Each structure stands twice: as structure tokens, then as C-alpha cells.
């Protein structure tokens, strides 16, 4: 279908889990009529109650009045099946991360929806083009990656597929504005902008546990820099078991040395805050992370079992490796055109990943260091740590020309 503009006034959300609930609230807050579906009627009813409770809490907090809460609730209704949502302007799929399941949903929706409807996936890492390929409207398929909890977190990654039309991107950006989001357009690659960079950051943090650091030391160094929380506290909040279960389902990745500490914690049912213990201990009803010497002992055992000769790792090394991992991957993302500018990369990290606001984001921070210095440190890490530190070609060009990441748009 060719159409110059898409006006999103009605939507359907598939999935009543944590993400679906937050997305429904975002849409209702923005004045969009929402139809809600889930394979489990019980889950859907619990989710509708959650939305009502959330609005009641907002009234008690004085954020909205009773009339506004009722107006928002009235915009949300449940639907029995896909046929009941055939006239909506937008569908957002928010089921668990399984490509085949998402393709099945998109195939069925594509056959039923009106020709002008936009199809969006809330996937955090899967291939948008592979999802779009099962439809007859690839120009109207994209990713709308919300961050959890979706009605609180500001960031929205809008993922353009190879065939996503400009008009569909514009409509999504407009919707993002109505929802009060900081919207950043990303190209399609595993993990998009944010999670692709996070993977390299977490890899360094986990590697340093095996080499000699402990979780509380890594977190303290990054929190000292200004991060909202370090990577291990972050895992306790989101649940250490999510990636563990994902690796189990995929049948790959469980042998990777850097995830062995996570694996041992999950085998002990230390999943994080929700189970009262993960990398840290939590008293009942508290989110206060308490240092647990048992975890240090577990880290030491796993590290020695894998043949590492442990050494002291200081805060300076922790910071450098975690930050430069972000910067180098961010530079690759820029060079590939996945992000449109260094500022977009920074917006993702400031609004979705707790990067310290006063540092301006990873690429802005790198500019304070200078491309030449960043290149020298990456070259040193390549020599001492391995080929995965190979500097991005963009960093090499910026260092040679004396330019900054702020100029990267002109460099690409």
C-alpha cells in the first residue's frame, strides 16, 4: 500500500505480560484507543486490573485527577481474537522473544488487518526483516522497542526494516512524541543500538569477574562514575534467569566461560531481587542490595575452575574496559549507519541504560578523551586482551583527521 501519511488513533496490543501492560498504559496516556489480546484470559484480566491499579496510584500521588484516570481506563478494552482488531491503525506485538512465534502472529494479523494498518514488534533483539518477510506489507512493519517498565522508561527505539517506509517511521516518531518518549531510529541488526552495545559492556564486566574482580567492585566503580547502577545490580533487577532461560531454550551459549557465574547463581535459584538473592542479598520487601561474601566465594571457585590466575583489578581498569567497550561498539554502529548520529547513540544510553547525564553519553564522553587517546587505548587492549578490542575503522579515521564523534555523521 502506498500512503503519504498514517494517523494512529487506534491500536491493538498482543500480550499481557510486563511489557504489554506498560505499552497499553503508554498508548492510553497518549489518547489512543487500545484493544488488548492475550492467549490467557486469566493473564489478560490480571493485566487490566494492573492498569486500573496503576491509574489509581497516579491519582493518589496527585499526578492525574479521577476524571483523567477514568478517561484513560475507558480507552482500554479487551478483544477475544485477531478478527476483533482488524480495523485498528497499529498493532504492537509484545510476546516473548521467539522468532517463529512472532512470525506466526504477524502472518495471521497481516491476513486480517485493514491495508493501511502498521505492524510493530516490541522485540529487543530479533531480526525485524525476518518478521516483516512473512507479511505482504513489509513497508508497514517496524520495531517499536519499549524499555521496561514501558510506562516509566523514556526511551523508545524505533527500528526500521530494510523496506520500512518513511511515512511509517514519521507516524511512529509522532506517536513517540505523543507518548512523551525520547525516540531514536535504529537500523536493523542484532540488539539494535542499545542491547548490541550492552552485550560488549557486559562481556567485559563478566570477564573481569573471572580475571580477578568481584561483582560489588565492578558495580562500585561504574556507580562511582555516575551510572544509575552497575551491570550486576542491573541483572539482579531484571532477573539473572532471563538470559539463562533464553540460552537453555536456544540450546546454545551455556558453555561460554563468561556466563558460568550466572549459571551457578541460577542453579541455586539466585535469580535477583525477585527471589531475595542474586549477585546480592535483599531483605524481604527491600530493593537495597547487600554484599554477599558467598557470591565472592562462588566467583572465585568458578574462575579457578576455568583456569584463571586471579589478579587485583582496580576501579580504573574496570571503568576503562567497560566504557571503551561501549564506545568501540557505538563507533561500529555509527559506521554501519545503524544509528544516524553520535547524539542518537548517546540518547539511547542516557534514557535507556542509566549512563550518567552529566557525562552526556558514551560518545560525548569519548569526545572529552579525544579520538587519538581512545584509539591508543584500544590498540593497547587489542595487544593485551585480544582481537575483540580491534578499533573501529571510524575511530581510526577520526583520530587521523583530528575530528570528533560529533562530526561522525559527516565522516560516514
Describe the protein's architecture and organization.
Helix content is 51%, strand content 9%. It is of the alpha/beta class. The longest helix is centred in the C-terminal third of the chain and has 21 residues, at 315-335. It has 18 helices and 8 strands. The chain has helices spanning 18-29, 41-60, 66-74, 99-112, 128-132, 166-178, 194-211, 215-225, 231-238, 241-250, 260-267, 293-305, 315-335, 342-352, 362-369, 371-385, 393-401, 408-411; strands at 10-14, 33-37, 76-78, 90-93, 118-121, 141-146, 155-160, 182-186. It has an 8-stranded mixed β-sheet, with helices on both faces. α2 packs antiparallel against α3 (66-74), α8 crosses α13 (315-335) and α16 packs across α17 (393-401). Among the domains are: 10-186, NAD(P)-binding Rossmann-like Domain (Rossmann fold); 315-411, N-(1-d-carboxylethyl)-l-norvaline Dehydrogenase, domain 2 (Orthogonal Bundle). The protein is globular and about 60 Å long.
Looking at this protein, list some descriptive labels.
single chain, alpha/beta, Rossmann fold, N-(1-d-carboxylethyl)-l-norvaline Dehydrogenase, domain 2, eight-stranded mixed sheet, 18 helices
Shape: globular
CATH architecture of the domain at 10-186: 3-Layer(aba) Sandwich
As a percent range, the share of helical residues equals: 40-55%
Low-confidence stretches: none
Radius of gyration: 22 Å
CATH topology of the domain at 10-186, which one? Rossmann fold
Structural class: alpha/beta
Q: What's the CATH first level of the domain at 10-186?
A: Alpha Beta
The percent range for strand residues is 5-15%
Series of H and E elements: EHEHHEEHEHEEHEHHHHHHHHHHHH
Mean pLDDT: 95
**Number of DSSP E strands:** 8
Q: Largest sheet at a glance?
A: 8 strands, mixed
CATH superfamily of the domain at 10-186: NAD(P)-binding Rossmann-like Domain
Number of discrete helical segments: 18
Biggest β-sheet: strands ordered side by side in the sheet = 3-2-1-4-5-6-7-8
What's the N-to-C terminus distance?
Answer: 32 Å
Amino acid at each position: 500500500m502506498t500512503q503519504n501519511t498514517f494517523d494512529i488513533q487506534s491500536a491493538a496490543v498482543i500480550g499481557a505480560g510486563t511489557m504489554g501492560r506498560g505499552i497499553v498504559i503508554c498508548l492510553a496516556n497518549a489518547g489512543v484507543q487500545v484493544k488488548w489480546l492475550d492467549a490467557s484470559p486469566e493473564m489478560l484480566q490480571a493485566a487490566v486490573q494492573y492498569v486500573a491499579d496503576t491509574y489509581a496510584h497516579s491519582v493518589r500521588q496527585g499526578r492525574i485527577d479521577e476524571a483523567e484516570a477514568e478517561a484513560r481506563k475507558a480507552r482500554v478494552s479487551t478483544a477475544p481474537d485477531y478478527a476483533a482488531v482488524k480495523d485498528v491503525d497499529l498493532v504492537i506485538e509484545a510476546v516473548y522473544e521467539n522468532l517463529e512465534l512472532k512470525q506466526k502472529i504477524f502472518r495471521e494479523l497481516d491476513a486480517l488487518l485493514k491495508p493501511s494498518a502498521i505492524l510493530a514488534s516490541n522485540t529487543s533483539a530479533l531480526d525485524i526483516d525476518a518478521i516483516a518477510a512473512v507479511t505482504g506489507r513489509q513497508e508497514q512493519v517496524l520495531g517499536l522497542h519499549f524499555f521496561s517498565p514501558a510506562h516509566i522508561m523514556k526511551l523508545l527505539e524505533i527500528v526500521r526494516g530494510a523496506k520500512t517506509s518513511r511515512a511509517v517511521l514519521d507516524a511512529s516518531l509522532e506517536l513517540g512524541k505523543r507518548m512523551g518518549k525520547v525516540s531514536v531510529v535504529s537500523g536493523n541488526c542484532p540488539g539494535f543500538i542499545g542491547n548490541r552495545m550492552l552485550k560488549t559492556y557486559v562481556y567485559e564486566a563478566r570477564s573481569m569477574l573471572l580475571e580477578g574482580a568481584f561483582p560489588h567492585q565492578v558495580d562500585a566503580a561504574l556507580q562511582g562514575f555516575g551510572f544509575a547502577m552497575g551491570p550486576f545490580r542491573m541483572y539482579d533487577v531484571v532477573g539473572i534467569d532471563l538470559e539463562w532461560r533464553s540460552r537453555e531454550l536456544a540450546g546454545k551459549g551455556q558453555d561460554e566461560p563468561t556466563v558460568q557465574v550466572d549459571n551457578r547463581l541460577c542453579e541455586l535459584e539466585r535469580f535477583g531481587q525477585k527471589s531475595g538473592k542474586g549477585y546480592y542479598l535483599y531483605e524481604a520487601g527491600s530493593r537495597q542490595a547487600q554484599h554477599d561474601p558467598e557470591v565472592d566465594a562462588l566467583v572465585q571457585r568458578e574462575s579457578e575452575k576455568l583456569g584463571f590466575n586471579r589478579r587485583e583489578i582496580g576501579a580504573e581498569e574496570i571503568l576503562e574496559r567497560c566504557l571503551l567497550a561501549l564506545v568501540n561498539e557505538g563507533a561500529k554502529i555509527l559506521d554501519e549507519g545503524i544509528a544516524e548520529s553520535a547524539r542518537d547513540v548517546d540518547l539511547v544510553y542516557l534514557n535507556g541504560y542509566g549512563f550518567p547525564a552529566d557525562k552526556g553519553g558514551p560518545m560525548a564522553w569519548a569526545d572529552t578523551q579525544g579520538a587519538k587517546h581512545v584509539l591508543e587505548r584500544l590498540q593497547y587492549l587489542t595487544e593485551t586482551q585480544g582481537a575483540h578490542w580491534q578499533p573501529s575503522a571510524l575511530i581510526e579515521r577520526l583520530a587521523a583527521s583530528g575530528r570528533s564523534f560529533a562530526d561522525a555523521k559527516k565522516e560516514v
